[in-house]
Amino acid sequence: MEKSIKEKRLEEQKMVQEMIQLYCRKKHRRKKGEGLCTECESLLKYAKQRASQCPFMETKTFCSACKVHCYKPEMREKIREVMRFSGPRMLFHHPVLAIKHIIVTIKG
Questions:
Q1: Looking at the predicted structure, is the pLDDT value of residue 83 above 60?
Q2: pLDDT digit string (tens) for 51-80?
Q3: Are 24 and 30 in contact, with CB atoms under 8 Å apart?
Q4: pTM over 0.70
Q5: Residue 86 belongs to what H/E stretch?
Q6: Considering only CA atoms, which of 63, 65, 71, 26 is closest in space to residue 46?
Q7: How far apart are CA 41 and CA 24, in angstroms?
Q8: What is the distance between the alpha carbons of residues 83 and 102, in angstroms, rounded to a whole number?
Q9: Dist CA 100 CA 106 (whole Å)
């Protein structure tokens, strides 16, 4: 069964949130219930806002696979850094999300 656009947006936002949280905990030494640092909080807010307004959500898999890059260059570089760091570690910290992400990427 095909997912609704709303479900896809929420999944993408959940994935990016988990990746930013993992990055912030490891790189900025934040403890698990402590919340995000200011920099990571603003990146998360920006990423969620971009995903909530994406006109291609129906057909795309993830932002990294999109032909149109709607992130500002400095935010795009920050999210890339987060993805490079968190991506390989997601399998150990959030295996279900990581496997879903891999499946969607392969199908896409």
A1: yes
A2: 898 888 777 767 767 778 789 999 999 999
A3: yes
A4: yes
A5: helix 73-93
A6: 71
A7: 9
A8: 14
A9: 10
Structure-token pair, residue 89: 């570690």
Burial (CB < 10 A; 0-12, 13-18, 19+), residue 16, is: buried
Collapsing DSSP to helix, strand or coil, 53 comes out as coil
Q: For the chain, give percent helix, strand, coil, nearest 5.
A: 70, 0, 30
* Cα distance between residue 19 and residue 79, in whole Å: 9
Structure tokens at 27: 């790189």
Closest CA to 104 of 68, 59, 69: 59
Residue 5 pLDDT exceeds 90: no
Structure tokens at 102: 């891999």
Which tokens is 77 given? 């570089």
Of the pLDDT bands very low, low, confident and very high (cuts 50, 70, 90), residue 7 is confident
